[in-house]
Amino acid sequence: MGGPLPAQELSVFENLERLDLSWNFLTEGLTPKEFHGLSKLSKLKHLDLSWNYFGNQILRVLGTQLPALMSLDLSHNYMEGPLSIKEFHGLSKLSKLKHLDLSWNKFGNQILRVLGTLPALKSLDLSDNYMEGPLSIKDLANLSRLEILDMGGNRLNGSISPYIEALSSAKAISLSNNYFNGDFPTQDLCRMKKLEEFDISRNDFEGILPRCINNISSLRVLDISSNRFIGNLSSSLVASLNPTAIEYIDLSHNLFEGLFSFSLFANHSKLKVVRFMNDNNKLVIETENPVGWIPLFQLTTLVLQNCNLNKLTGDIPKFLFDQHRLEEVDFSHNKLKGSFPFWLLENNTRLQLLNLRNNSFEGQFYLQPKHHIYISWMDVSGNHLGGRLKENIGKIMPYLYGLNISQNHFEGDLPSSIGDMSYLELLDLSFNRFSGKVPTELVSKCTNLIILNLNSNSFQGEIFSKHFKLSSLSVLQLNNNQFTGTLSSILSTLGRMYLFDIGNNNMSGTIPSWIRNITKPEGVLVMSNNFFEGHIPCGIDSTFLIDLSHNSLSGPLPSCFSAQSIILLQGNKLTGSIPKALFNSSSLLILDVRENNLSGTLPVEISTFSDLRILLLGGNNFSGMIPNQVCLLKKIGIMDLSRNSFSGTIPHCFHNITFGKINATDLAFSKSYVNFWQFYVGETSSYAGLLVRSHDSNYFYIDMPLDILVEVEFVTKYRSSSYKGGILDYMSGLDLSCNKLTGGIPVELGQLSSIHSLNLSHNQLTGSIPERFSSLAWIESLDLSHNSLSGEIPSTLIDLNFMGIFNVAYNNLSGKVPDMKNQFGTFEKSSYEGNPFLCGPPLENGCSTIAEKLNPKASERKWYEVDPIVFFASFSVSYIIFFSVVASILYINPYWRQMCFNLIEDIMYWSYFTVLTPLKRLSNRLCRH
């Protein structure tokens, strides 16, 4: 409708008692004439103005012109507090008002004192407003007449005792989804003899539930879900509930433990709803003890999720054979066995939701060949069901909104009748063994599909044909199949998706320019492991995550490239340098361009990636020095610069990078990237009480999360390992191997106490291994091999208790290998080979042999291994003594003296005629020639 309230047109209905103008987007702005016309509706008792655009001014109009109002719904408007004097007086004149709904506005705590002036008020809904902090008795003093109070969805905290004390006569109280904490208000609650409905779900209460709840004989609804209550359910609660009154009970998401026998509910004849979603593994729910018990109740809703249901036998509860009014059944995340319980659908013809996810059901997915017109949601994923789907499955369940049969063993072709499920919004067939082509009927007739997941099957053929008309898709997952063909232009006519994944198929061709319009800015585009070729078009980077890895893409990175968060381009044929436009994205988390032909130096502008967590540049042709600006990337966890041509020294500032040492507030991948879709399941009459609960309204929905887990490969411990999701926040490593780095290893690297992998191998590093490496407390892999390191291996490294790989082979190290203690007891001789002067186990060289080689014994020395000082001293003394003796003899004996002189004279003549005469003859001949 829109526009102002049509008071003038309504004034002709003077006897009107009930008026519903909800969902009309009406506004205020009454003229004096219209204002007067509204006063003619003097008999109006029930007025619904919810879901409009009214502000506070409507309050003074209603109070002065419609004094007979008994029921007023102003929820989902634009009202807020505090009220003006006129608004206050206008509201206070509604003296006959019994039921007031102000939910989903912006009122604060002050509104309570205003509402206390309404003498007839019995029911008040202030849920989802802006009320906060603890409330006092004074705030609630004038509300003692209330029978129904809903203050859920606010920011209230502290103790709830004031609420209980002030509302001792109340029949229904909801304080759900607030911040209340502490122990349960045992005594105050147990005095509320008239209480019929009590909802304190989604708070932070703790302790044991009181047995005195049995004093509240009229209690029909009890919702204590999403708190921290403890204890044994059998003794603390169920035995205290009035079996002739209780109709609705929700115990989900607490800390209960022990064995709970469901047969304790056997005599609760009015029980309709039981909801129990467990978060721990300490509670076991047993339904088969005693054997053959028969319930007096007929349930409409039964949720027993993740609660070790019949842990010993794995049997589906047999009391269900006696149930015929079930509308919602959820046994997900148990270990139930046996065949698919088709009889649940046969016995409960109004069953709308069946969730058997993550159990161990096996055999055929058997369904009776008749229409199940009420079933709207079925999830049997994560079981062992197999075989082929029935050809008429689409005709058996024509009104399904959601079908999830993923992670089973289904096989064969997909029946064409699935196209008859024209209401489908979610279809998940992933992780099965389906084959053949996707039926044309599916992609042409199921036009309401929001999520289509065919991941990890063996589908083949071209899916993007002219028949593809799924224009409502938000998620399309075709990855890990055998699809062929190109990206048809039919996709350019679709709306923007959150996830488009065609990775790991056999698709080919170029990437069209319109592909940039296929995903939302916060979306995910995955086209990896195909045969796409050509250049990367501009604009394709306008998504949260882009994965084009392992294709045959060529050319440079686009000059317009400026990604949002994650770029994965590994294993292509890209050339050129990193474009400057890329450095405009300060929100980049992952950059992976490994295994390409990129070149140039690492730009100093890389420091603009202030939020970068993973940098992978290995296997390219980058050169030059590693700039110090890389140390400004303080949040980096994994860095791979290996297999390039980087030169120069390793920056001493690497210790400024966290490499795994992060705070809880810095987690980037543990949060995961989740988007929720809310799917309509159908109308339900499961329970309607005094309080309105979201899952008990006339319609109920299912929230389906889509969790995007980023996956990155990194080489550590001699193998390429895949790290996925939250583990990326904690995995850390630095790989500088296979470059041309020189100089010593910076001692500052020893400050990387949280790093898991460090690889400096295959470089030209010199100097010693830093003693500070003993501070690498979390190191698992340390590779320093194939360098020119010298000195000894620090013995303190044996204190590194998590190190599984240690390699210093092919260096110039010497001395004793660290003792074979702790992790060093697991390293083989290959970790040390190529160092001839290392000794000790596990090497064959004993340290005594090495010492003898370096300093042999005197008895084993060769004749030429003489001390030079001793040699020259002994030679000189011997020479002097010899000539002194000869001179003395010649001086004393004249005969020997004469003989000596004659000998000298003969030697001189002989030398002259033997040597000098032939030399003169030779000289004369040479001159003549």
Automatic annotation (TrEMBL):
Highest rank taxon of the organism: Eukaryota
Membrane-topology descriptor: Single-pass membrane protein
Alphabetical list of SMART domains matching this protein: LRR_TYP (SM00369)
Protein location: Cell membrane; Endomembrane system
UniProt keyword terms in alphabetical order: Cell membrane, Glycoprotein, Leucine-rich repeat, Membrane, Receptor, Repeat, Signal, Transmembrane, Transmembrane helix
Annotated TM spans: 869-892
Cross-referenced InterPro entries: Leu-rich_rpt, Leu-rich_rpt_typical-subtyp, RLP_Defense_Trigger
GO cellular component, one term: endomembrane system
Family designation: Belongs to the RLP family.
PANTHER family: RECEPTOR-LIKE PROTEIN 14, RECEPTOR-LIKE PROTEIN 8-RELATED
Protein name: Uncharacterized protein
Species assigned in the record: Carya illinoinensis
